[in-house]
Each structure stands twice: as C-alpha cells, then as structure tokens.
C-alpha cells in the first residue's frame, strides 16, 4: 500500500482557503448558540428572612416550562408561566446545521490534504467511485450547495428566534410580571431583581451564521471549476482552437 502523503497546495488556492475560513466561523456560530445561558435572581423576604429565587434559560430555549409560584413564601396557589413560549426548533436547526457543517469541513479538508489527486480526477459519486472514501468534486459541490441553503434558512429562522427570545426575556417585562402577579413582590420594596445576561452571544451567532452562508455560497464557484460539468464545457473549445471565452486562440489569428 502506497504511503499517504499530505499536500497543502489547495490550501493556498481560494477553494481550500475559504474552507479554512469556514472552520472557525462554523464553530463560532453553533458554539455561541449552544453555550448560551442566562439567569435572573429574585431576592425576597418572608417573615423577615431573606430568600433567593433563581431561574435560568439556555439552549434549546424551551421557555414554556419556566414557571413561578403565585406565592414565593407559601409556595401555594398555583404557578404562573414566566415566558409562555420559546425558540426550540429555530435554535436546534441552527445548531444542527453548524454541527453537520463542522463535521463535513473536517472530512473534506482531509480529502484536500491527503486525497487531492483522486478528488480532482474522480468525478463520480462515492457509491460509484473506485475509492468510496474519496470525496469527489461533484459530491463536494452538491453537499456544499445544500449546506449553503441550510445556512441561509437556519440563519433567517434563528434571527426570528432571537427576536422572540429578546422580547420574552426583556427585564422590565419580567419584573412587571412579578410585581403584578407574585407575592411578596406585589410589595415593590420586598423584591430585588438581579439580571445576569446580555444578548451579545446571540448577536454574534447570527453574524457568524450569515457569514457561513456567504462563505459556503462563495466557495461554490471554485468547487464548480473542479467538477466534470465545468471541465467538459471547456474541452470542446480547446479542441477547436478556441479559448474558454469562445474567441479564436492567439496562434490562429497571428500572421504566418
């Protein structure tokens, strides 16, 4: 068995260089979403004793299960849903797209580095290729196109989800809900609220998501040039003495 050798040539070309840029951007997109968490501490007094009620929300942002008792001191009288809804499907689709893209980039970079000759020469689908482990340029183009579409849809959906989360977790709205509906917070001096969150990570995840769409979509042109679909259109022109643009070759127009 021939020794496998690594070639970094393609990393110096737009195709490989964009893949390198995709790697940290994809990681940033799903990591900032999956790693997000926020907490609100409510300090209150019952018969002169200080107590703290804390609740958190985090990925996958299923806010429907977050509730508080009507009476924090007696813990009776039913409960109130703090938020009422969430952004589960949007966040999960966004993170799923990120994880799939992350795994694909690792796999395709391996192909670029160690199986570049097969990648450039074998244009068949993996099930038809002589080496199923080799990712052909045709497969790379199709998968990249699908991921680009996924990133666009996921980023748009997640942008809507982030707006929902920001609206539901507005500090003044949560505070008013406690003051109006929860004992002993109806006495405004009895409860003190300490928020522990901001939306910077969610904003970063959105920027990274749309950046991933841009990078994957941009790379399609460079992958397309490696496919048999593109090369087969260039071959007839070269054979007939024409350049890729359809003009006569320079040697044919020069005087003899």
UniProtKB/TrEMBL annotation:
Keyword Glycoprotein: yes
Alphabetized UniProt keyword annotations: Glycoprotein, Membrane, Transmembrane, Transmembrane helix
Family from the record: Belongs to the synaptophysin/synaptobrevin family.
GO terms under cellular component: synaptic vesicle membrane
Name of the protein in question: Synaptophysin
The keyword DNA-binding belongs to this UniProt entry's keyword annotation: no
Transmembrane segments: 20-38, 92-114, 141-161, 200-224
Compartments, record wording: Membrane
